[in-house]
């Protein structure tokens, strides 16, 4: 039945999206990412692959053109599976094979994938496409469409969307509208309705809770917040910075910059104790921060967001009187203080997975309520169908106080994007919780004190020489590297360090924490030198500070 694929047409069109000779790319942490000019063939081929995946799952599949936190010159693409989730691991392998196939091998690889995955080629296929604001994204998404149509797939191009909005659309379309309406309007309405309902319940709706400064990383978040703003303005007014009108995407601003440099973005004026937050380039991450009265910068990262959210959810469950299990999922980047606080003070079980939303999301699905956040601000909460049903019943039956709590939980569930981490949705969840609990940003920050930490990047010739185990907390290769790290870590108090190859940038990432900033900085630098020496560093040796 290969006749159902017009192999001749595929070959002909593929030549128009030719692969640069010798270029090898890997489906990484969040799809393919590299310089935009190397990605045309990958886009075309991911269009083809999305059609096969759609036929196999008999569902709508999403394709998002973005490189999220990467610099503006980069771009990327990832596929979104039927329930709005990241692509299944076995298909990531197919994606890598297909992206790297030389022109003459394309047909064979496509047939191989179809056979291995028992794809019924006669099945209809539907693909939805979204893209971020990068200058290269429009043309690249057109190449995806070329791929989709050449194998007879139907498509809907949403144009400019945040990444989590595309995940939401896919989820809506495959659940018969039960999750929501698969339009941007539907997204705005669903979230805003839940948010406004929640904030109505806040007893202290004083002005301090009602305004927020948002750094949009010069990306898509600005456009979408501007569209959405008036839907929720009853509950919150947002002031946008780095809205793309002049600056460069992710440059000296955005969640990744703020988190990794531990300083405020450029282009935003911050008065003391004002609540501020940053999105990343495709609005799937968020971090908060403020300046205290002495002008010191305080970062509130994904770990503290997870803590705020899980403690609020736990309190609601106690009020409702339901004993549902809550779990928190983190990665090795989670600050040691956050893990200790969650486990010892909040008595919530905490799990550590590898970096990458797909790993956290998967683990979080094991709980009635699974809260997952990467320290970099990427995360959400997942609620099992059992929870949703129980809460819906409670909201109708229980005594006043319980009913109120159940209603709140119902709205919180609606406010979370359960398909993916979502800066807009998370922002509204956080703002609602702060308002409901009457918490200032300082009180939230004071839940626990982060251990000082430092993240660095090291350039090496081939980052694949580093392999890791134990949720990326230990290096297996190259030989001697883990021993070197162990020896360095011993020199500092309350210290911890690990290294791993990035799945989105061509670098090795180094993380260190210790009892003082000076120690964390030293340790991170020493570990960087060990990586440089033992893992084939290139360019300039890592410099201190
Ligand atoms: C992506 C992933 C995140 C991951 C980040 C960095 O974020 O979705 O899960 O933490 O890359 O990954 P790595 O350390 O492997 O480079 P984003 O916001 O860029 O899509």
Protein traits:
alpha/beta; 545 residues; 19 strands; 18 helices; binds 1,6-di-O-phosphono-alpha-D-glucopyranose; 5-stranded mixed sheet
Structure characterization notes:
- The protein is of the alpha/beta class and 545 residues long.
- Helices cover 42% and strands 18% of the residues.
- It is built from 18 helices and 19 strands.
- It has a five-stranded mixed sheet with strand order 1-3-2-4-5, sandwiched between helices.
- Helix 2 packs across helix 5 and helix 13 (385-397) packs antiparallel against helix 14.
- The structure holds 1,6-di-O-phosphono-alpha-D-glucopyranose (G16).
- The site of 1,6-di-O-phosphono-alpha-D-glucopyranose (G16) has 18 residues, from loops.
